[in-house]
Design a protein that fits this description.
single chain; 254 residues; alpha/beta; Alpha/beta knot; 2 domains; 5-stranded parallel β-sheet; two-stranded antiparallel sheet; 16% strand
Length: 254
């Protein structure tokens, strides 16, 4: 897969492409990331890529010509072009999955007070990472690129993505590390039980309750199975299967 990012500030992506999962995915050939400087395409004799808005107003607006020429240079028949914009639909994990199936994704970063309205006809879609204002689309494009890349085959272990928040419409269950007791705050005993079926049920129960309490908007969209409803009915009380697993695993607690 190839991801092309059109930006006025390519240096912002130096750290993004040279660290952690992204760096390894590039090295393994899982993804190609192309950073394109929109400034390289301006025909303005002074090298300008922005201008005050016609009709007056605050700030500067990015001009059509450099953006459109940059897009024409990088687009192919298989490209999917997205403009980072507050007008766009809110970005979700499902959208990340959809984009991860594309051959080529182009992310266009706006900056300053926005871009010339006429650029919109040259993009396939507008997308927003949330209802707040950033200086430009660069940080948003990193968010989107990261979310896509980690879903690509070979980027990370498949099981790492299967159990994450939002993958099944729920928040992820709590995770713990050693020591068992940290300042009186203990790891749930069931995780030491060795009973994988009981642990999976406990984790599902935690995910359901965490989502219901913290993200009721997500919870409303979840289709609950009979088992899910039973786990929710148990509330915060330990069920018989949970108590049995805990009792069996106590000898493993250090």
């Amino acid at each position: 897969m190839k991801i092309t990012i059109l930006t006025l500030f390519p240096e912002m992506f130096d750290g993004f492409t040279t660290n952690s999962i992204i760096k390894r995915a590039i090295a393994k050939g899982v993804v190609e990331i192309e950073i394109v400087n929109i400034r390289d395409f301006t025909l303005d004799k002074y090298g300008r890529v922005d201008t005050p808005p016609i009709g007056g107003g605050a700030g500067l607006i990015m001009k059509c010509q450099p953006i459109v020429d940059a897009l024409k240079k990088v687009k192919t028949k298989s490209s999917k072009t997205l403009l980072l914009s507050p007008r766009g639909s809110t970005y979700t994990q499902n959208k990340a999955k959809e984009l991860s199936k594309e051959d080529h994704v182009i992310l266009l970063c706006g900056h300053y007070e926005g871009i010339d309205e006429r650029v919109n006809k040259y993009v396939d879609e507008q997308v927003s990472i949330g209802d707040y204002i950033l200086t430009g689309g660069e940080l948003g494009s990193m968010v989107i690129a990261d979310s896509i890349i980690r879903l690509l085959d070979g980027a990370i272990a498949e099981e790492s993505t299967e159990q994450e928040s939002f993958e099944n419409g729920l928040l992820e269950y709590p995770q713990y590390t050693e020591p068992y007791d940290f300042n009186g705050d203990k790891v749930p005993d069931i995780l030491y039980s060795g009973n994988h079926q009981a642990i999976e049920k406990w984790r599902r129960k935690q995910s359901l309750n965490l989502t219901k309490e913290n993200r009721p908007d997500l919870f409303e969209k979840v289709t609950l199975s009979k088992q899910d409803k039973k786990l929710l009915e148990e509330g915060k009380e330990k069920a018989s299967w949970e108590l049995a697993a805990i009792e069996k695993g106590k000898k493993f607690i250090k």
